[in-house]
Amino acid sequence: MGTRVVVVGAGVIGLATARALARRGAAVVVLDASPDAREASWAAGGILGIGSESAADGPLFRLAHAAMQRWPGVVAELERTTHVPLAFRTTGTLLVALDEGEVAPLEARGEFHRSAGLDSRMLSGDEARRVERRVGPAVRAALHVPEARLDNRALWRALETACRRELVETRRGTAALGLLRRGERVVGVRTAAGDVEADAVVVAAGVWSSDLTAATGVTLPLVPVKGQMVRVAAPDGFLGRIVKRGPAYLVPQDGHGIVIGTTAEEVGLDRHLDPDVLRRLQATAAGLVPEVEGLPRTEAWAGFRPRLPDLLPAIGPVGGSPGLVLATGHFRNGILLCEWTGELAARAALGDVDPSLAAVSPDRFRRA
Questions:
Q1: Yes or no: is domain 223-307 CATH 2.40.50.180?
Q2: CA 90, CA 97: separation in Å to the nearest integer?
Q3: Per-residue pLDDT for 285 more than 60?
């Protein structure tokens, strides 16, 4: 029998990790406290934002670059094996400027992108409107970034289906209450339904991950950053690209209208939706694409992005606690990084730690 691994968290990162482990012969159990797994993976916008999230070189950009190179193959394989269409589109993102003060940072970002092999290009306002005809007259310039998007909820369904095909056991509605330890070694997870023993444990529980790590000497200062979002009805083709300015964005999703986001609120785990905030989100979006102002709202929701102080995720083994691997803290990049994180975390759980994980090691949060 292969190595037995428990993965805590059934979002896209946990499922990608479980799938990668099962494909390497491990026996995998996934635990998730939520009965329907509707947390950050479900609440995301589906942006694979390699360039819109990075304006300079660093560990995050390098992780994103490696992740982005994998996505076309991953999508093709998942769609072929699960028959779940992911609406993967590579038409790119327009990062827009509304005044002259915003143009120079976009130009600098574009210069970095090109130096890193990403063919981003500056457009005047008129050029941006020729590329994306519904962009409003207030847009002075834009950086066209060749990145991608997909349907994040479809991605979750595809990964869940893929895990079932790989005989991964998923126990939703089962909260991980603590880690089982034998000496320093982590040997499983304690739940209300009983102990689940394992050779290794991967914690991929988003903002709830720190609840399990404190006893190991790693105190993850995770902050749940609440994002309120809305969906409006629009025909396919209403927008061909993501349109984004700062935290405000419009993401076209085939067959599902336009997703408009988002706020960045540090209010704990308060899921309350504020009608005034939702109206402001749509009004802000209308400043970029005026025609969305009158589109009917079909859905509104909030999610919690797990943010660490240095804005990097925590991926890899926990020093001094053999058998424990973390995969959390992805903040705004969970969808982009999920498959590559899953690969790296699975390898680490089986004893193969990629050197690239040094920059995002959980041990940077180890107590002295």
A1: no
A2: 22
A3: yes
- Looking up tokens 């699975």 gives 346
36: confidence class by pLDDT, cuts 50, 70, 90: confident
Q: What are phi and psi of 27, to 5 degrees?
A: -95, 120
Q: Which of 230, 261, 234, 229 is closest to 248 using CA atoms? A: 261
For the chain, what's the residue count? 368
The token pair at 217 is: 């000497």
Q: Residue 228: which H helix or E strand, with range? A: strand 223-232
Evaluated on CA atoms 91, 97, 98, 100, the torsion sign reads negative
Could you read off the pLDDT of 48-57 as tens digits, one per residue? 999 999 999 9
Instruction: Give pLDDT tens digits for 286-320.
Output: 999 999 998 999 999 999 999 999 999 999 999 99
The answer to whether 84 and 161 are in contact (CB under 8 A) is yes
Q: Which CATH architecture has domain 4-51+153-221+310-365?
A: 3-Layer(bba) Sandwich (3.50)
Beta 141-145 vs 121-124: how paired, if at all?
A: antiparallel
Structure tokens at 28: 């995998």
338, two tokens: 């999920």
**Are 199 and 5 spatial neighbours (Cβ–Cβ below 8 Å)?**
yes
Provide the CA 149 distance to its chain's centre, in angstroms: 12
